[in-house]
């Protein structure tokens, strides 16, 4: 009976220790994220508007370039830009 009590006590101490270490790790990670965002903010990239692009063998229809540019903007979160459009 004494061995079971010692085993249960060791199990509870181990679980509590792991839980406390994980809590410390979570709070340290959150603090690191706050510090990095405060002292090294992400650079804002300003994209140039794409004006006229040529399709191989002709020009783009009027709404196609706007549609492609909008899709690229949505997918890249506003950081991407359309440089060239080619038909394959």
Give the termini distance in whole angstroms: 78 Å
Shape: elongated
Strand arrangement, major sheet: 1-2
Largest sheet: 2 strands, antiparallel
Radius of gyration over all CA atoms, rounded: 28 Å
Work out the strand percent. under 5%
Mean pLDDT equals 82
- How many helices? The count is 2
Supply the helix-strand structural class.
mainly alpha
Helix content: 55-70%
Uncertain segments are 52-56
Give me the strand/helix succession. Answer: HEEH
Described by its quaternary structure, the protein is single chain
Number of strands: 2
Explain what you see.
The chain has 2 helices and 2 strands, in the order αββα. With 88 residues, the protein is mostly helical. Strands 1-2 form a two-stranded antiparallel sheet. Strand 1 and strand 2 form a beta hairpin. The N and C termini lie far apart (78 Å). Helices cover 60% and strands 5% of the residues. The radius of gyration is 28 Å and the shape is elongated. The chain has helices at 2-39, 62-76, and strands at residues 54-55, 58-59. Residues 52-56 have low confidence and may be disordered.
Topology:
Blueprint: H1 2-39, E1 54-55, E2 58-59, H2 62-76
Antiparallel strand pairs: 1-2
What's the short story on this structure?
This protein has 88 residues and is mostly helical. It has helices spanning 2-39, 62-76, and strands spanning 54-55, 58-59. 60% of the residues lie in helices and 5% in strands.
């Amino acid at each position: 009976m004494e061995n079971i009590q010692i085993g249960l006590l060791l199990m509870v101490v181990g679980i509590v220790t792991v839980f406390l270490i994980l809590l410390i790790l979570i709070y340290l990670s959150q603090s690191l994220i706050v510090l990095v965002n405060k002292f090294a903010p992400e650079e804002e990239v300003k994209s140039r508007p794409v004006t006229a692009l040529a399709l191989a063998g002709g020009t783009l229809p009027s709404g196609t370039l706007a549609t492609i540019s909008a899709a690229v903007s949505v997918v890249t979160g506003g950081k991407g830009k359309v440089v060239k459009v080619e038909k394959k």
